[in-house]
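Example S7 (structure tokens).
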């Protein structure tokens, strides 16, 4: 359903390998949870740009072990993610129909319409 590809100006990204319908689950993948006491060290590595805040208090971190860990950010995303703490997974769902070959993007702020600034320059 999805594959890694080149996203101009962004490096790697995730692309639809077939039409994905609005509301369809794109991927639900497990996470590797690490305690908040390790965030200071994780932030000093490349993983600092890839982990999700985790837990109902968001004090821990989680590294997604699926392809959607490479979804790029957009303030006009075509997908969103849901952190499923009890299941230890993150689910990615299409917000609208996604065409074959289209890049799958999410808003890193979690809510699709949240315009809080990112820690990097947002392209496009």
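Recovered sequence:
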């Amino acid at each position: 359903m999805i594959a890694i590809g080149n996203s101009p100006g962004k490096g790697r990204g995730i692309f639809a390998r077939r039409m994905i319908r609005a509301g369809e689950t794109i991927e639900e993948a497990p996470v590797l949870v690490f305690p908040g006491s390790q965030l200071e060290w994780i932030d000093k590595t490349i993983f600092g740009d890839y982990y999700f805040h985790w837990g109902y208090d968001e004090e821990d971190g989680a590294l997604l072990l699926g392809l959607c860990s490479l979804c790029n950010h957009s303030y006009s995303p075509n997908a969103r993610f849901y952190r499923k703490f009890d299941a230890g997974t993150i689910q990615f769902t299409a917000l609208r129909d996604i065409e074959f070959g289209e890049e799958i993007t999410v808003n890193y702020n979690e809510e699709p319409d949240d315009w809080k600034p990112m820690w990097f320059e947002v392209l496009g």
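Notes on this example. The beta strands are 2-7, 11-16, 25-34, 51-54, 60-64, 72-73, 79-84, 89-94, 103-106.
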